[in-house]
Prior knowledge:
Blueprint: E1 3-8, H1 15-19, H2 24-33, E2 36-40, E3 43-48, H3 50-69, H4 77-89, E4 105-106, E5 111-112, H5 117-128, E6 131-135, H6 142-155, E7 161-166, H7 182-200, H8 203-211, E8 215-219, E9 231-235, H9 243-250, E10 258-263, H10 277-285, E11 291-295, H11 305-318
Parallel strand pairs: 6-10, 6-11, 7-8, 7-9, 9-10
Antiparallel strand pairs: 1-3, 2-3, 4-5
Amino acid sequence: xxxxxxxxxxxxxLVPFLFGEYNxxxxxxxxxxxxxxxxxxxxxRISGDEEPIGKAKTVLLSLYxxxxxxxxxxxxRADIDGxxxxxxxxxxxxxxxxxxxxxVIKTKNKTIVPRSPNQxxxxxxxxxxxxxxxxxxxxxxxxxxxxxxxxDMYLKGEVERLIFTRPAVEAGENLGFLPGDMKEKIDPYLRxxxxxxxxxxxxxxxxxKMEIGEIEIAPLAxxxxxxxxxxxxxxxxxxxxxxxxxxxxxxRMGEASHMVITGDSTQTDLPNxxxxxxxxxxxxxxxxxxxxxxxxxxxxxxRHGLVRKIINAYDRxxx
Length: 319
């Protein structure tokens, strides 16, 4: 039986951000929930089956509340998908709820919220443990959320430095043949980290902090022999480390530091005869109480919906 619900939003300045350009967000929600939404100014009339109408109401009110709290207003389809994931999981998303794991990170450029229950759990682990492994397929937010957590700690003064590193294994022995100096040769392999930082911090602020060494982005080989104290350190693409490199990195951890190691053990670029340092570390450290492990899967992918289907298809093929 078709039901009808009317929603009214008091702040007319926020309505365009909630509804999306040319009502794109409303159209997307209609398609996802098989409902009909018509608008007149700041008033919405939602019709359809009772359950999807209730979901639409929850999603729209949650996003509207977020817009009220944020200084920079930016709602996307991915945010709608995130709200729907929390609804499907049956876990409370309201950060004021007693049982909620919700963590909101406010950087200089944007407010970052988890878009799945596992992303919320991941941020919670990072806040509780000095070392966390974020494991799973591409597009699950492993790197982006860890960068956000690091930036948050840095801006609050909880750490003095941010250090981001990746193994440049793809370059291999051909690195010397690439044009440019060492920084220009290595930068393409560290681009995802630069992109995440630029999303969260103003460019002039980022450049200044990199110049004085408080924010450092470097290949894994540059970590050897160092003790990294009072720092937030991220090792990205850890599946491309050898066992020796992984042990070297993990033992760089110094006083008052935090480490996050991210990777997907199914996507290693190492030669077939070399075991991934990430896989070995999981085997060796899996029982260590003070280390957090977060395993993402295809349902946590927050990129285009096809990415999730592609990952599932490859998993079925490999099995």
